[in-house]
Each structure stands twice: as C-alpha cells, then as structure tokens.
Amino acid sequence: MKKVWTFLSGKGRMKLIRHCPESSGKVLSRMIVIICTALLLLPGTLSGTEKNGRKVVRIAYLEFNRQMIVDENNTPVAGYAYEYIQTIGTYAGWDVKYIPCASFFDSVRLLRAGKVDLIYEVSYTEERAKEFLYPSEPMGYEYYYLYSSAAYTSIAPGDYASMNGKKVGITSGTILKDFLKEWCRKKNVRLEFVEYEEIPKKEADLFAGKIDLDLELSMLAKRNLSAIEKVGSSAYYLVGARERPDLIEDINAATEKIQSNDLFYFSRLQERYFSNTALSRNLTIEEKKWVENHKVLRVGYFNNYLPFSTRDGKGNPIGAGIETIREIIRALKLENQLKVEFTCYDDQKEGYKAVETGKVDLMLPAYISNSVKKDYQLIGGKVFASLACDLAYSGDYYWKTRNKRIGVNRNNLMQYYYCKDYHPDCKIVFYNDVQGCFDGLLNGTSDGTFLNAIRSDGLLKPNKYHSIKTVRARYDFGFQMAFAEDDIGLMLLMDRGLTMLGHDFVNKTAYSYSGIFILFP
Description:
Blueprint: E1 5-10, E2 13-18, H1 24-41, E3 50-51, E4 54-61, E5 69-70, E6 76-78, H2 80-92, E7 94-100, H3 104-112, E8 118-123, H4 126-129, E9 132-133, E10 140-149, E11 166-171, H5 176-187, E12 191-196, H6 199-207, E13 213-217, E14 225-241, H7 245-261, H8 265-274, H9 285-292, E15 296-302, E16 310-311, E17 317-318, H10 320-331, E18 339-345, H11 348-357, E19 362-366, H12 370-375, E20 378-380, E21 385-387, E22 389-394, E23 405-409, H13 413-422, E24 427-431, H14 434-443, E25 449-452, H15 453-459, E26 468-472, E27 477-484, H16 488-513
Parallel strand pairs: 4-7, 11-12, 11-13, 15-18, 15-19, 23-24
Antiparallel strand pairs: 1-2, 3-4, 5-6, 8-14, 9-14, 10-13, 10-14, 16-17, 19-27, 20-27, 21-27, 22-25, 22-26
C-alpha cells in the first residue's frame, strides 16, 4: 500500500499531512524536494527578490517637496525620505527599488496588495499597528499646522473667532483629521472639513479661494503659505506588512549601527531639508514686537578676525559674519523695515560692554558660555559656525594641561574663555595681539596658544614663525552672536534667520575669506 504526503502552504505556514505510511528514505527525499520547491515559489525567498545576495526591497514613493525629490525621469534623487531610506538600505544590505504611487492612500493599497515591501512617513495608530509592522525608532517627527495662503490675511494667528465657519482641506487616509477634531474641541472652533486624496488638488483649491485653510505638515509647507496655528505632532515611520518582519529587523539593526556611530546623523539630515519652511518664516510675537520697535539693527563686529569680520582698507566691514547679517535680513524680507549699521571693535571687551549697555544690539563673532555669563550680562544665539581648533607650540610636543602656560590675545575674549572653560588648570599669559602670542612661544614665556584652525596657516605664514608647529586640539570652537540678556526677541529673530540660511551658507562664505586675513594682520 502506497503512502501519500500532501504539502500545504499558506501565509508562510507549511504543513505535511500523512495519509498513509511509506519507507522513511523515500519520504525524506520527497519532503526535501517539495520544501525546496515551495521555498522557491515564496515571494523573494521570504525577503523580496534576491540580487547578488542582497535583498531587493520595493518601496512606494510619491514626489513631494523636501521628502522625495525626483528628476526629469521621475526617478528619486534627493529628499529627506530618500536619503533616510538609502542610508538604511546601505547598512542593511538592500538594493532599493522605488515604485511610484499616486497618493499616500495609494501607497497603502500597494502594500496591502503585496506590490511593495515598505511605505514611509506613516504615523503610529493602534489600528495601523494591527495591519503594519513598525520599527523601534521613527524616521522623524512631524508637526501639523493650519496654513492659509500668504496673501489671505482675514485669518490671524490666535484669533479663533476669525476661523469659525471656515473651510479647511485635509488629506484623506491620514490621522490629521483626528488631531484637528481634538484641537477644535479644545479651542472651541467650528471648521468645515473638506477631504482630498491628492495634496496638489488641495493646495490648488486653497490658492483659488475654494477653501480657507490647509492642514499640512510643517516640513512640507511651501513658501506661499502662512502658518496660523499648530494643531498637533507625531512620530512617523518606515513600515512594512506583518508578513515581512525580516525588513523591520533590518531597519532596527541599521538604525542602531548608524546612531552608535553618529547619534545626531538623522537630526542633521532633517535640518538640511526642513529648516527653510513656511513655518520658519513666520515671526513669533516677540520677534514682531522687536521689528516694530526698531528701525535700525546695530551690529558690533570684532576687527582683524577674518574669515568672520574685519575692516577692509577703506574702513568697510567685510567677512562671513557681516555677509550673514545682511543675508538674514534679506531672507526674512526685512530690507524695507530694518537698516543695518555696523560698528567695529578692536577690543572684544568693548564690544561685549556695548551690547550690555545697549550701544549696539548684537556682537559677532562671540563665544558665550556659563563662565562668560558670570562676567557679562549676555546671552548667546545659535552657533552659526563650528570650527576645529589648533594648539600652536614651539619645540618638542609634550602637553599636559596642568601648569602649562597658554598665551592669549588680551583683546580676544573668545580665546580667553575657551582656554578658561576647557583648560582650567593652565595659567593664562596675556599678550597684546596674536603675534605677541607667537612671540611668547619663541621666547619661552608661554607653552602654547589656541587658534581657530581655519586661520592657523595664514597667521603662521611669516618666516619668523616657521618653527612654530600646530596640532589639532580636542575641542572645536563654536561661534555665536552675543545679545543683551533681556533681548530675547532679537535673538529669536537672528536664530530664525540662521536656520533659514543653514550652515552651508556660513561655511562657504567663511572659506571664501579664509585666505584674505593675512592682508590685514
């Protein structure tokens, strides 16, 4: 009597059902053949199609400002989501294949149908967690704002009465509707909801006046929108179907590797793509009051400190810091409201005191730490440039901080407080200028002096200093603007401008001046 085995497969489960006995050797051979055949028939051998030993992972994508940027062939080439996915894929060993979709709702449909393996920018809900698998860490955080057209001024931030009865556009299939319902309940605002499957259609209707408000993510809002009210926030994820736990494990492992190597990698990536949004151009109440109460922005700057600031041969201010101030005013569209006046200071102490007493509104470049705040009533804005620092020395290199003598330019408070903060065991020896600090190394009255690394080669260019050597210091140097401690409105305004410009502007401008300062010793 023959023995027959039947193989059943379904949703990743395999069963062998014995109908009647057979010799064990034939059974084993037949089982192996059947199982191998079945595995080959499973999609992608449980991990998508394999290519050269790497998983081919299909990801639905939709062209959208800042998240996914495409070229003329509709191929993804940039954007936060693109770079996030590419980075995860590199660490996970994926070959990523991008599948176009028409909308967020369409991407969900493709995932449910098994036509893609992952979809991105998905917020967490208990209902979605029953259907999708989420990794341990989000790919980012999103903030939901009500926007109006920048040309539409009948709705004012904080004026909830002006919002009553207005039509608001909402993208279908997202959790934004739930956030807005809760916000309306808390603020006692009545809004008429209009749902859209396609975001471009929603934006077109806003600018055509068919709806009054648009509920959208802050990072995706465009230049011709004006932020009215924050409605809520949530984390968002790169998610997969429940049948694909292997991909979620890949994402978790890749994220851990990336963050163990560079904890703030994704934060910097988000800043690069989302710093200059419609939200970033809307001034706060404090910032608006400062602009309304001032016709002139008075800027103090440190002389002989290129690439950031100095006077040229005609007495005009030049440098990356000077250009940054001017570019901030342009970016904030304040050219017709604020005139900028510059005042040069050879001694940075005089500049700090001028800020304290209100003679100028801010001073740059500056270094503000707790030790500075003990001596001056100042606050520091956002770091606009962070550069390496060099230790200059003469003779053989042997450095222990205790009992070492550090030469400091008495006019440079940044150099002084840097030494005080990071090398408290050293003795500070003051000289009249940076050349005096070098002379101190040569005549043995000091053991070292710290320099902004971008300035080192030029400052040590004269032949008399060729015997002085440099080594990279342990701590970088952060450059800020200094403000009076009660001038929060101006600090917020300048920080907003810096965020809009980004680090690339300051760094590129600084390097364009890096070879000039030797002309103004």
